[in-house]
Structures are given as C-alpha cells and as structure tokens.
Specification:
Elements lengths: L3 H9 L7 H13 L2 H17 L1 E2 L6 E2 L5 H4 L4 E8 L2 H10 L4 E5 L17 H10 L4 E4 L5 H14 L5 E4 L15 H9 L5
Parallel strand pairs: 3-4, 3-5, 5-6
Antiparallel strand pairs: 1-2
C-alpha cells in the first residue's frame, strides 16, 4: 500500500509538464508549508471540480452560464474568434482590443494523438453559427501543424455556412531580428504583408 506522500507525488506527476522530480519537490513544499496552505489548496481543487463547467455558448470554463463574456451585451455578436483553449482566450482578453465573442475548441486536430473532430467542440461551433447572427469567424488556432490542420478543416466546414472566414496573421514578432526568424515565419510574414 502506497503512503499518502507517494500518492501525492503520483498524482502531481500526472499534471502536464510535471515529472517525478518536480512532483516530489512540490509534494515536499506542501508538507513544509503551514497546514492551512494544504487545506486551502485542497479546497480550491474541490471548488474547481464542483463549481466550474462549460459555458453553453463559447465552451469556456465558467461558474455562471452563460459566462461573463457571452453575457456582455456590449460585445459584437457578429464576430466569433475561435481558439484552441481558454488560455489563448485569456491572452487575447488581456490585450483589451478584441470586442467580439469567442468559441473554444478545447484542443486541435492531431491524428497521431488520436484527437479527431469528435474530440473537439466543433459540433457546438457549427450549431452556434447556424443559430446566431455570426457574420465573421476568425480562426485563431496556434501556429503549429495541428493548429494549421484544424484551421483548414474548419474553413471547409464554415465556408458553406455563409459567414466570412478569416485567419489571424502570423509573422515576425515586435522586436524580432530577421536573422533569427525561421523560414516559415518569414514566408508567412511576406505572404501576409499589407499595403501602407
């Protein structure tokens, strides 16, 4: 029978990006902390599991349904920005520039990882576009093979439904030196150029 410490290390090591060594360090940190810290951590985990659910519109994690973004009447309801996960949505929200609505896929297509269309919130996206006055869908999937494959798949599904479908630009980051930029990023920057 495993000890409580071994069980904690085992559970922590199941988190993404956490190996056994990091899990062990985290477990000992928890043990060395005041008992109230561990109790607060346990309560936070229980609250997340029991109180957080999907927004029935954008599929974001939320305590209230619809979430605060979908419920905000000041948002442009004709624009829908599609992202892979809530982390990307939060990053865009921090910029305070986008004022439309979101749809979160909760992943990207990845045949090697056995993630297909049925594993993502694509069905919900299509239902939403059919039932709401969406004029433009902006695809903001990540700039990697899986993200590109997901964007191409969505383009094929969305175009026949009528809204304008666009893809976020990709290219050279502000402050980036051209000599250090990979060739694919340079190619996309050149292809995505705009008149000034």
């Amino acid at each position: 029978m495993s000890s409580p410490l071994d069980l904690l290390i085992q559970q922590l090591s199941r988190l993404p990006g956490i190996g056994e060594k990091t899990a062990t360090r985290l477990a000992f940190y928890i043990l060395r902390s005041p008992k109230s810290y561990a109790e607060n951590l346990a309560q936070a985990l229980k609250s997340v599991v029991n109180e957080i659910r999907f927004c029935n519109q954008c599929q974001n994690f939320t305590q209230v349904d619809p979430c605060s973004i979908c419920a905000d009447e000041r948002r442009n309801r004709e624009m829908l920005l599609v992202v892979e996960g809530p982390q990307e949505m939060r990053s865009i929200e921090r910029g305070k520039n986008y004022r439309g609505l979101y749809h979160i896929l909760h992943g990207a297509l990845s045949p090697l990882d056995r993630i297909g269309p049925e594993d993502l919130k694509i069905k919900e996206l299509l239902q939403r576009i059919s039932s709401q006055p969406v004029q433009e869908v902006i695809l903001a999937t990540n700039n990697h093979v899986e993200g590109e494959a997901t964007a191409l798949y969505l383009i094929k599904l969305l175009k026949p439904l009528g809204p304008r479908v666009s893809r976020i630009a990709s290219g050279i980051p502000v402050g980036g030196d051209l000599e250090y930029i990979d060739s694919l990023t340079l190619q996309r920057a050149i292809e995505g150029r705009r008149e000034v």
